[in-house]
Amino acid sequence: MGNQPLIVLSDDSQRTTGRDAQSMNITAGKAVAGAVRTTLGPKGMDKMLVDSMGSVVVTNDGVTILKEMDIEHPAANMIVEVAETQENEVGDGTTSAVVVAGELLAKAEDLLEQDIHPTTLAQGYRQAAERAGEVLEDVAIDVDVEDEEYLQQIAATAMTGKGAEGSKDLLAEIVVRAVQSIADEDGINTEYVEVEKSVGGSIENTELIEGVLISKDRVHENMPYFVEDANIALIDTALEVKETEIDAEVNVTDPDQLQEFLDQEEAQLRELVDKLVDVGANVVFCQKGIDDLVQHFLAQEGIMAVRRVKKSQVKQIARATGARAVSNVDDITEDDLGYAGSVAQKDVGGSDHIFVEDVEDAKAVTILLRGGTEHVVDEVERAIEDSLGVVRTTIEDGKVLAGGGAPEVELSLALRDYADSVGGREQLAVEAFADALEVIPRTLAENAGLDPIDSLVELRSQHSAGDAADGLDAYTGDVIDMGEEGVFEPLRVKTQALESATEAAVMILRIDDVIAAGDLAVSSDDGDDDDMDMGGMGGMGGGMGGMGGMGGMGGAM
Asked: I want to staple 442 with a disulfide (CB 3.0 to 4.6 A). Which of 149, 269, 367, 452 is the partner?
């Protein structure tokens, strides 16, 4: 080749290798963890997120913050995936999972500087995570899933610090009743718990509706507001004259022909209504449109009708009332109808809603969520969704752990003992893993305005004495038995968080070469350098840095 350089990558490509690549990726992961760390625990702070359109979200829910941040850096996105996996699997613990992942990377960075090979670190982390899973199983508490008090304590723990503090007992009771209502032989699908938001009143006005609530109104003024002993028809097609599937023209040469054409169309629409009347339907929910003439005929027959009902709500109504959705009204029978004791249109917060209630053994329910402002209602909705996830998980698994950082301190002590039995340099990785887990109680203390060192020393002392359920009370600063205090979280929340955090950290540590097909740096037009701070994320490693869309976020973090 005559000593000429061989060009493999395009001029626009960037490549970062070796220690530089590892350092860049670790810094990205740590920055993501740092962004949500102050939201952890009952005294965690909120973030205000403003998007490019000016929409505002105020929350301390980890996964919501990370989704709204519009992160571009590929390694940082791996940490975001940890939060999303946690949310999808168990519904809570997203912030903990991200903070642990960030701390694992921070501890690994120290060991990399001591020339510990990334593969050795990865192996040690995996061993530590496996051992941690075994320890958690040993310290887990079996709970009676029929015990509502236990379930309410677990639900309340998931809501703590998420804007619903003053009403968490009421909301926890509602969540538990909702989950118990939808449970069947196939398990628990929380999709059948609809959360309907209405601004106005206070959180205390939130209620559980044993049935379905739809933010719609009846389609015609002459229809009844209230139907008792409702026989419900679900139609997933339009109640209109069917159009021809091919292009066609109708030539009218005589006014009588036009009238005849209109009369025939009217007769077809009348037949649709007559079919519904014949089977005994007195309430109709239609997934698509309803012709004006059909509305008129339905009103004449005293039938309440609602149009353009969402597909998800049609499923809710079907599950709650026993109705079956039909695509062709000609084929509808009495067996396709569902039953509800009452269907009524009521005003909630200044807008009309349709209530489908008094359903025997409702397997679909609705939580009508009230609050003083839209931001409050949105945040409480996120708290309820987390709570639904943990109650479902607890009922499915029947195992919980004490909260307040107790599991992490217990794991840290157990892993330090375990490290002595691990040969080679992996022992250092196991010890680093043990140290990393203490970031949770340390952060709980910091966010509560307590001295993290004093709190951690006392926690270690109590756990060394055999008090595995002792955790940090963020309100008083005391180390207390979290089991007696009623602070619990499902076992699966912790095991999933550890598994996801470990896998993400290991994957990032094993990357020693970053090849980018183009410039991933955020241009100066996207925002001021000060606004892009994010703990050192800006412009790392020759242009690989940047968390896109974060302009104006610096002050919130």
From this structure: 452
